[in-house]
Amino acid sequence: MIPHKKYMEMALELARKGKGFTSPNPMVGCIIIKRGRIVGKGFHKKAGEPHAEVFALREAGKKAKDGILYSTLEPCSHWGRTPPCTEQIIQSGIHEVIIGSKDINPLVNGYNEIKARGIKARIGILKEDCDKLNEYFFKWIKVKMPFVIVKAAMSLDGRIATRTGDSKYISGTEARKYVHQLRSEVDAVMVGINTALKDDPELTVRLVKGRNPKKVIVDTFLQLKENSNAVKNEPEKLIIATSRKANKQKIKALQQKGVKIITVGQEKGLLSLKELMKELGKHEIVSVMIEGGAELNAQALKAGIVDKILFFISPRMIGKGLAAVGDLGISKVDKSIQLRDLDYRKIGKDILIEGYL
């Protein structure tokens, strides 16, 4: 009996090598098996470069004939940035194709295309794992808005800062490194103007190896200083979301430095985060991690744009201080926000609680 799950797990491991580099494309891993041996393997490295199946077929060469191809995602059947993978699979003489996830992109119909051309095909092997791998991509394809994570580091009693505003560092070194790794895997990190002015954050991945994400600052009246770290370091990666009331001369000055300015409407005096997400989606930003303060976290939750929560709980107690989330307008416990699919992990001395909305 062929161990399909074992081979799909190997393809998933390959796919994860593309974390942080494939957006707006999905992560995909592929291996080709013949007589119980791996004859080809590959993963999607970067948008615009060949897909995982192409790398695997190149490595396999003539050995692909009568082999079994495992792909974590349904092979593409249309012309995009690259040619369709289905044609190359068919021409290679592959005997059977095993697929993890169905690609929800309406342009993709690789599974049916392969079957129609006389090749055996199965779909849904380790589906849950393969789907989770590309949860950012699937959300963006469905609604053209990024997958949004709210991340916060807090004390045991739920504070992200002391009553004087001091917050460095509530979480331990291992947790901070983990957050920097997460930053390298999302398209953008977002903070509010209060955090930008108070902390002057770099929003980089300086604690780990990886690429820096784009930086989004929610700044209704364009208060950000032109000599801030966010502007000085990689200004071309900075996006400022502001209102129509913003100073036009300052907009022009920032744009000349390479900063992108997005103007969105307001709701009750605050920028519309839902409108902002739609704009970011148009710019092929597939994932956003919010690392703001209590008010931005609450605003995002109330706006209904949040998909996932990452809360790091430190074994410290602060007492009176700043809460992780501001007023959500909830007066009864049975109306509170309930997370699902919870996961708990120890990272250094901290506990990470992860859940979906």
Provide tags for this entry.
357 residues, 29% helix, five-stranded mixed sheet, 12 helices, single chain, alpha/beta, 26% strand
Q: Secondary structure elements and their pairing?
A:
Layout: H1 4-15, E1 29-34, E2 37-43, H2 52-60, E3 68-73, H3 85-92, E4 96-101, H4 110-116, E5 120-123, H5 127-133, H6 135-143, E6 147-154, E7 159-162, H7 173-185, E8 188-192, H8 193-199, E9 214-218, H9 229-232, E10 238-242, H10 248-256, E11 260-263, E12 266-267, E13 270-271, H11 273-282, E14 287-290, H12 294-303, E15 308-313, E16 321-323, E17 340-347, E18 350-356
Parallel strand pairs: 3-4, 4-5, 6-14, 6-15, 8-9, 8-14, 9-10, 10-11
Antiparallel strand pairs: 1-2, 1-3, 7-16, 12-13, 15-18, 17-18
Strand content: 25-35%
Which structural class matches the secondary elements? alpha/beta
Estimate the helix proportion, in percent: 25-40%
Largest sheet: 9 strands, mixed
**How are helices and strands ordered from N to C?**
HEEHEHEHEHHEEHEHEHEHEEEHEHEEEE
Number of strands: 18
Shape: globular
Radius of gyration: 23 Å
Mean pLDDT level: 93
Distance, first to last CA? 40 Å
Question: Going across the major beta sheet, what is the strand order?
Answer: 11-10-9-8-14-6-15-18-17
Tally of separate helices: 12
Poorly predicted runs: none
Give structural notes.
The protein has helices at 4-15, 52-60, 85-92, 110-116, 127-133, 135-143, 173-185, 193-199, 229-232, 248-256, 273-282, 294-303; strands at 29-34, 37-43, 68-73, 96-101, 120-123, 147-154, 159-162, 188-192, 214-218, 238-242, 260-263, 266-267, 270-271, 287-290, 308-313, 321-323, 340-347, 350-356. The protein is of the alpha/beta class and 357 residues long. It has a nine-stranded mixed beta sheet, sandwiched between helices. Strand 4 (96-101), helix 4 and strand 5 form a beta-alpha-beta unit.
